[in-house]
Design goal:
270 residues; mainly alpha; binds zinc ion; 8 helices; single chain
Amino acid sequence: MRTEFPLRHFISCHTCQRPLTGSWSRGRTARYAYYHCYNKVCEQYGKAIPKKTIEGDFSCELQGLQMDDQTLNATCVMAQDIWKHKVQQEERSAHQKAQQESRRLQTVEEDLNGLADKLGRTRSEIVINRLEKRIEELENQRLVLEEAKTKAPAPHVEFGTAFQSVQKLLQNPYITWKEGDLPLRRLVQRLVFATPPSYDRNSGFGTIELSLPYLISRRVMADELRLVDIPLESWNSYLEAVFKWAELVEATDGQEPQGSPISLTQSGGL
Ligand SMILES: [Zn+2]
């Protein structure tokens, strides 16, 4: 993996939308690094975009996403509230389900006892066969219900813990990108943008589509959006993003993330 071209295969060519690659040019006195389109039928094919220029522009985009403490804290508090409410609801419905299953188990056990009684009193082969078959079915149901009863519900990951591991990235993606190793840099790229941005040699970046967490913070900081007006659906996507990102950030420790953007683009009517 070439560490000197972190944007390689991430940024696309504005003309043909294919990914850019990076190369070294051999000048008379010095080598210099550049990015370029390598799609042979594209008019931008091979035309150099200096590494310094595109990475500088990219840094500017990231710097523009820096979140102030107040917005970060308010967003965290609000998201935490929504998460708590969600957990409570899930716990309530898990409790209801457990109660239903416990009632069902009781019924099955009563039926089994009744059938065992009947079995003891009959001599007809046909009836015996039928009762035994039914007993077997109920016995299977009973085992399933018994097992469900002993299974503890999956523990909830604390929102606060997940938020903490992505807080720095949320608040200042530029710092994480600048200081990170290549895998982390590439992860940041894929988390910040909903779609890989395109770049033109003359005009720079095209339209930037941010992933939901940055979209929210940017609009909140620009006074275009109040946190209380964000629909629940978007908050759910936000929570999902925080948990997923925390997992990815932990897993990225030296590993190259695979695939396309993983930013959970669902904006839920923002
Ligand atoms: Zn191109």
